[in-house]
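Blinded run. Sample ID left blank on purpose so nobody reads anything into the name before looking at the predicted structure. Input follows.
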Amino acid sequence: MTDAAEEYAFLWNGTEDGWVVVQTDAGEAIYNSRTWRALLIEDDDLASQVIHLMQEHGCPYLDSMP
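Blinded prediction complete.
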């Protein structure tokens, strides 16, 4: 895990609940199903790495918005 990806560990380490990956028409999105907010990571490579780490740590992967 890179230092840049490590700053997003709150998505999978339990410090913030509700984070999921949602498949959208535009691609994969990081979304919090409890607060109804999306998280935008502007660096596409970093976003892909973070989404991969979320999946490795068991975060839900949804086909549509909850």
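Unblinding after everyone has recorded impressions. Strands lie at 19-24, 27-32, 37-39, 61-62.
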